[in-house]
Write a structure and sequence with these properties.
eight-stranded parallel β-sheet, 29% helix, 300 residues, alpha/beta, 8 helices, single chain, 16 strands, TIM Barrel, four-stranded antiparallel β-sheet
């Protein structure tokens, strides 16, 4: 039985990774999960310099999910390379480094610094607010998305995955823009913008006022968007948004994702990724499917 998939020329032993920001770089989860079993580990977002993140509180539970406004807190690339990438080097899994930035120059600098590392793929988070454009996210403007993709591709030594924001009118327009910019793959969806009020304190549940909604509540939206993108562009897709079970993961594969990422579920059940991998294998056995690639895009 073959569980391996190909993302932009990089072979993953199975189609399961983790969503950036929900797994650290695997250090916190090592005692629960054999990282060697994952198709890839996707790291928390890292920038060329340390970011302090947003004020607290930064997380709030919601019905069917959670909201976060961490603000991409990270120690910067120097610490990340020395600590996180060294840690992951000991494992037989692919490494996807999530990169964030506040300007085109930030992204270019970070990607250049990652050129000679053991990162296998780069996932570019274009949901970051662009300070030069008054805070609009790169991923909400097709022209900016295409520009940032082209700029990153010019200096990147690894294949580039562009992570798409669902907070747009037409997700296919964004997907076509990053494809035109030279992206090697896309991942989607990032979180949906939401808000929660603490009625006892009569104020916002997170200090940032709004936060990114993730978890089971967003899965139907994510599946729909992956389906639309799979039918609009030719690039491989990593699908994510509310995956808790193998059945959830299979929905994404069947509408055209080549791999999936487990996010919020890691906080509830640290074993989720392994259960999803085993569940996909069990499904294939049950249905007499020899190659997981037969399932990718089988629902038209």
């Amino acid at each position: 039985m073959n569980l391996s998939v190909n993302i932009a020329g990089v072979t993953l032993k199975n189609p399961v990774t983790v969503a950036s920001g929900t797994f650290g770089s695997g250090m916190e989860y090592g005692e629960f999960v054999d990282l060697n079993r994952l198709g890839a580990v996707t790291t928390k977002g890292v920038a060329n310099v340390p970011w302090p993140g947003n004020a607290t509180p930064r997380i709030a539970e919601t019905c069917g999910g959670m909201m976060n406004a961490i603000g991409l807190q990270n120690p910067g690339l120097e610490v990340f390379k020395e600590r996180d990438l060294k840690f992951l080097a000991d494992y037989d899994t692919k490494i996807i480094v999530n990169v964030c930035g506040r300007s085109k120059e930030d992204y270019i600098d970070a990607v250049e610094q990652l050129a000679d590392t053991n990162a296998d793929l780069l996932e570019i988070n274009i949901s970051c607010p662009n300070v030069k454009e008054g805070g609009i996210a790169f991923g909400q403007n097709p022209k900016m998305a295409e520009e940032i993709t082209a700029a990153v591709k010019k200096v990147a030594k690894q294949p580039v995955i562009m992570k798409l924001s669902p907070n747009v009118t037409d997700i296919t327009e964004m997907a076509r823009a990053v494809e035109a910019g030279g992206a090697d793959a896309v991942s989607l969806i990032n979180t949906l913008t939401g808000m929660k009020i603490d009625t006892e304190r009569r104020t916002f549940a997170v200090a940032n006022k709004t936060g990114g909604l993730s978890g089971p509540a967003i899965k139907p939206v994510a599946v729909r968007m992956v389906y639309q993108v799979a039918n609009a562009i030719k690039l491989p897709i990593i699908g994510m948004g509310g995956i808790r079970t193998a059945e959830d993961a299979l929905e994404f594969l069947m509408v055209g994702a080549s791999a999936v990422a487990v996010g919020t579920a890691n906080f509830v059940n640290p074993y989720t990724t392994i259960e999803v991998i085993d569940g996909i294998a069990a499904y294939m056995e049950r249905h007499g499917i020899q190659d997981v690639n037969e399932l990718i895009g089988c629902v038209k």
